[in-house]
Amino acid sequence: MRWLRWSVVPAPLVALALLLHLNGLLPAIVPAGSGPGGFSHLAQVLSGVDRHGRLPPAQLERLGPELTAQLEVLAWDGPTTRPQAYASDDERLAYWLNAYLTLGLARARSLGDGASAVSRLRYELGESWPVDGARLTLATLERRHLSALGDPRVTFALACGRDDCPAADGAPFVAGTLDAQLNDAVRRYVRVPAHFRLQGKVAHVSALLKAHEPELVAALPERQGSLLHFVWAFLPDACDEVPGCDTRGALDLACGPRLDRCTVVADGR
Length: 269
What we know:
Radius of gyration: 20 Å
Shape: globular
Distance between the termini: 41 Å
């Protein structure tokens, strides 16, 4: 039995293997690649994204073969295995954002909508995929290859097709348009009333916005301002596309020209 085999492995070796697993340090077999690499299969999967930035379960299942094909490409294609294809910083960042999205969609397909919090945690800690020559969990990929970059907009681009993740775009990230795509990701996020809404003199922000407040404020010009200044920069002037969202004008009116007359409260996800 599987548990019996593990029971005879010395505890220090089990602990070492777990440590290597959680830090993405276990090597993966790199199969021989076929085709041009890149994210053409992911592009097909993202064609099923709805106007809310979600990939409905039926669509995800229908596009499952394309997702599987993209996972197979990740095993042999990447900045380590094909450095000439990802020579610039933007090319590498776009790769890791697309890899995260691919793994996130694979997670959503495996778990479905009804998974418990315990099941999700077990999956997060235990499931890994061969990506660019290493076995990576979703959390390890984010920590090693995305969070360390210092661009706070990345947080709002980590889509996974589910309601508890930022909304996905309908296309993969591309180096040539990456800056604009990251700005669009933040715009999509702050325009959702569940992530930011005004109630009188109270500004309700998501837990994600509040958790990243130091980095978001540090990204402001001359590092001066507040979390509301960051949000203001990405709010729309009108809510034609997202009924019920708040606008820059509404934020100015509620919180004053310096955005210092409101109380900021973190709630929701």
